[in-house]
Specification:
Largest sheet: 7 strands, mixed
Shape: elongated
Radius of gyration: 22 Å
Strand order of the largest sheet: 7-6-3-8-13-10-14
Helix content: 10-25%
Distance between the termini: 49 Å
Oligomer: single chain
């Protein structure tokens, strides 16, 4: 790890405002992505592809868009694979460093593990949230209230699967209710997995053990009456931690529902992205919106799209159909096979005439026999 950069206390404040250039981001990606299995058996969650771009690239782009270029990835699972994909962050316009956990340390422990690499103000992002939140507005909110900690909140129709956050006057946090039953619902604002923390607060987190930011760190701030506020943002927000949500995130990106500077590789033609080196039979059809990865081959009479993503070097056989499906790299799809509303990981083989339907998730290297039927 590089030597930590020491910041004088409150050096990130300039005349009551915040200087984003002095803010360090910590992205929490210490888990093994168990909810995304089988997709994460061979690829760590930070670099699962969204429109053929590593997921982490979307979070780095969001930070860069708001003037934050110093980023630490707190991670522990398949770290070398992440390094190989993301490097030092230069091609994404940030300086990316790695704080590696020997043992999983939880959401607060992961931040504490990166403490020597941060200073001043820290923005913390959960490593499974796709959002276009206005971090600049959140920084201004934090500065205006002279807050020590600020949490990003979003509204959801059904908050029972999340942690509710009750606010008082001026947006001050009053109470947390983790995964409430219907009788406990007092608000629709939930923890959206982004926080602003003054550097001095990190010293409150115990070292070397599992610590939860939601169950231990935040309640401690409330108990000690630390200035702690909730910023409610009306922006796109999605936890991509399950296969269904992961697929939904890509469909939302294809539909333009997420404001991002990240684009799939290739040229945009008639509403679809096509990367370099594609071999496409004159009888093949691509329906927008879709993404076709570099070096893919589309056979005679095949149909790709709408709402399909093909990774690099895929082969789609004659008469095959791929619709609403997320297909990773080097997948072979046999003649007259059908893939609809499913997810297929790298190097899978789909036999001729097979049907892979809604909700099916195939792990890397899976083989589906000819004429087999999976899913709806």
């Amino acid at each position: 790890l590089s030597h930590p950069r020491r910041h004088p206390r409150d050096a990130h404040r300039r005349g009551g405002a915040l200087d984003p250039g002095s803010v360090t981001a910590v992205i929490l990606a210490g888990g093994q992505g168990t909810r995304l299995r089988p997709l994460t058996y061979h690829r760590p969650k930070p670099i699962v592809p969204l429109l053929n771009v590593p997921f982490l690239a979307y979070q780095l782009a969001l930070l860069r868009q708001h003037g934050i270029h110093d980023v630490v990835l707190s991670c522990s699972y398949m770290v070398e694979e992440v390094r190989a994909a993301m490097g030092d962050g230069e091609r994404h316009g940030v300086a990316l460093r790695y704080a590696v956990e020997v043992e999983p340390l939880g959401t607060a422990g992961g931040v504490r593990n990166a403490v020597d690499l941060v200073g001043g103000l820290v923005v913390v992002l959960n490593g499974d949230v796709l959002t276009d939140a206005d971090l600049g507005a959140m920084l201004r909110f934090h500065a205006d209230r002279r807050s020590a900690a600020t949490i990003y909140l979003t509204r959801v129709p059904d908050p029972t699967a999340y942690g509710l956050v009750e606010l008082g006057e001026g947006g001050r946090v009053r109470r947390f209710i983790e995964k409430p039953d219907p009788t406990q619902i007092t608000t629709d604002t939930i923890n959206a997995g982004a926080y602003l923390l003054e550097r001095r607060l990190l010293d409150r987190i115990p070292e070397g053990r599992m610590v939860s930011v939601e169950r231990e760190f935040f309640p401690g701030l409330l108990a000690d009456r630390i200035p702690f506020f909730g910023w409610v943002g009306d922006h796109y927000w999605l936890d991509i931690g399950s296969p269904a949500k992961y697929r939904q995130g890509q469909l939302d990106l294809l539909a333009g529902r997420v404001a991002t500077t990240v684009s799939p590789a290739g040229a945009l033609t008639d509403g679809s992205f096509a990367a370099e080196g594609i071999a496409m039979d004159p009888g093949a059809r691509v329906a927008r919106p879709s993404v076709i990865g570099a070096g893919s081959r589309l056979g005679a009479g095949c149909r790709v799209g709408p709402c399909a993503v093909l990774g690099p070097e895929c082969a789609v056989g004659a008469g095959a159909a791929v619709e609403g499906a997320i297909v990773w790299d080097r997948v072979v799809i046999g003649a007259h096979a059908e893939l609809r509303d499913c997810i297929v990981a790298s190097e899978a083989r789909i036999g001729a005439g097979a049907h892979v339907g809604a909700g099916v998730v195939l792990e890397a290297g899976a083989e589906v026999p000819a004429q087999a039927r999976l899913g709806a």
